[in-house]
Amino acid sequence: MGESLSGATLIHNPTPKVENDMMSIFDKHLLQNISELPKEFQWPSEQLVETSHESLNEPLIDLGVMKTGDEVAIAKAAELVRNACMKHGLFQVTNHGVDLDLTKAAYDEMDTIFNLPVSKKLSAKKKEGSQEGYSGAHGDRFASRLPWKEILTFINDYSKISDSQVLDYFVSTFGPEFQHTGLVFQKYCEAMKEFSHTVLELLAISLGVDRMHYKEFFDDGYLVMRVNSYPPCLDNAHTFGTGPHTDPTSLTFLHQDQVGGLEVFSDNKWLEVRPRPDAFVINIGDTFMALTNGIYKSCMHRVLVNKEVQRKSMTGFLDPRGDKAVRAPESLISKDTPRKYPDFTWADILDFTQKHHRAEADTLDVYFSWLGSSKSAPANSAPANSAPEE
Ligand SMILES: O=C(O)CCC(=O)C(=O)O
Ligand SMILES: [Fe+2]
């Protein structure tokens, strides 16, 4: 699947986590001041492929055209999206309708969370089987190639009537004094929902399928919202904030601060995705790739850590309802372009990435061959692993 990662073979069977140790506690004050990188954070040299120091030439789409009804401008935007998604799977959008002040407020609330004492953050720790919660470097799940970051994940389920689910999460997890934080993220998620509908419409147009097809498909889906903090690292050349991977999810709506570090693998090199305060990065994930019958490419990306400054980003991962069949629309199937993937459900892929496969690349291919072999055996020789991303 996709371009080959020359010199950067992706490893599917990393050392599984055996027991809890110090690394399950990501104490940024301690870690960012030590000159010797703990071995758990060291990545193998074949994966530490140098950046090209060049920028990706992804299109910057003015999403405002979707509201104007100017079909010529919409067709032009759709063509740019199509070319980018066929090549590397990423584009940026402006005029997305997410208020800049709200985005800034969300970044401030990230500080509120990540500056909490370690013990308070650990009280919100992600529990097995749940997608929500705090996690430091995934140290509770893996023993090696840990990402240099701490994250908080919460869910906005589109099928739930409640319009305060994110607020409720913050208050019940951190306490009533986190009402404001919860409200900010609740509003942010609602803005993301609106915005994702417009993007889904543009993607449908770009593929020549019914304009409402993907919007309707994701109507009862959910948004996995994740805030990421990457503290500075003195030995940043030997680790990653997020290692090379494709997102197993459908679409990723990402906002990054001005520090930089997000890179995409395209034309056989790692290219920087320039930070733009007024833009969101959209990238295609494995599940959406299947929904396009493989026409659009799941974006291979990674995050470098900065030596001096903290980097922050916010990622919204869009997922369909867990039990819905993931199946490309008939209009994308023909004699020349037969169906490329058997039907599957997002719940199955998610479970697979939690129990059998560290989702870095080729998740769908590995999943289908695992299904085809023996479902009772792990996909690789290692016991359960899961994604750095999911
Ligand atoms: O922080 C970023 O810019 C991207 C993070 C990412 O790729 C992920 O969480 O899947
Ligand atoms: Fe990602």
UniProtKB/TrEMBL annotation:
Q: Which domain of life is it from?
A: Eukaryota
Q: Which cofactor does it need?
A: L-ascorbate
Which pathway does it serve?
Answer: Plant hormone biosynthesis; gibberellin biosynthesis; Hormone biosynthesis
According to UniProt, the reaction catalysed is:
gibberellin A12 + 2 2-oxoglutarate + 3 O2 + H(+) = gibberellin A9 + 2 succinate + 3 CO2 + 2 H2O
Q: Which UniProt keywords apply?
A: Iron, Metal-binding, Oxidoreductase
Gene Ontology molecular function, alphabetical: gibberellin 20-oxidase activity; metal ion binding
Q: Name one GO biological process term.
A: gibberellin biosynthetic process
Task: Specify one Pfam family.
Answer: 2OG-FeII_Oxy
Q: Which residues form the Fe2OG dioxygenase domain?
A: 221-320
The family assignment reads: Belongs to the iron/ascorbate-dependent oxidoreductase family. GA20OX subfamily.
* Protein name per UniProt: Fe2OG dioxygenase domain-containing protein
